[in-house]
Model the fold of this input.
Amino acid sequence: MMVIFIAALFFGSACNKTEDPENKAGKLHLYFQHEIDSVPIEFDTLKYTNAAGNPYLVTEIQYFISDVVLYRNDKTQQLLDAGEDIHYVDTDLPETLTYKLTDDIVPGTFDSISFTFGINEVKNQSQLFVNPPESNMFWPELLGGGYHYMKLNGKWKDTGDTIRPFNFHMGIGQIYDTATGEITAYVQNYFRVSLPNSSFTISNAEELALTLVMDVNQWFEAPHNYDFNEWGGMIMQNQAAMQTARENGHNVFNLLKNNSK
Done:
């Protein structure tokens, strides 16, 4: 009889237990914006000039970010990978411009936020995505497989005033034997982005909204001026060009703090 009483007491206690309303987990929502010279980009309009003096336009931008990490003031960090840890962004698909992470975040103050631009070599495997639009980002098997990190497509005006298309595509690079032309090694060109001035606080039960802004012109400047007349319209299979883009890419994003949901 005593056992039944104790069990009933335990069960009643468990049923009456409530979540601490003062320490309810928060959530993070990321939104994506694309600008040139701090103004939202106008697509299909030949109105921009990069640091090398190339007049250009952009038709579309498609890319992956992955492995978002939050860094707390106490030096601990949290990898947000409870749900979708790879997110696809497409300027032609408004629904991809919102990334609602499902991870619970203990309220507190964070020093900064970072993420991987592209997909690391462990996750970037062919057939990872079986449906479009993500599957349309496939990277040819011969060139390393997996998926593009980014497709930035557009046109530029060359020195002869001819409008030429460009496919500024980033992914796995290759090293070629100069004598045979055969691939001797592959280069992983994904990189970590540490966002400047990205400290923030998540309050009790807050759904914090942050906007990641891509400065498209930055792909073509600092630390390197990227000249389309030098590199041409395609950078796939040109590791030197992709390395230039990768080094410029560290400064492409900045963070805006929105109102909470």
Remarks:
- The CA atoms of residues 174 and 180 lie 14 Å apart.
- The longest strand covers residues 55-72.
- The chain is about 10% helix and 40% strand.
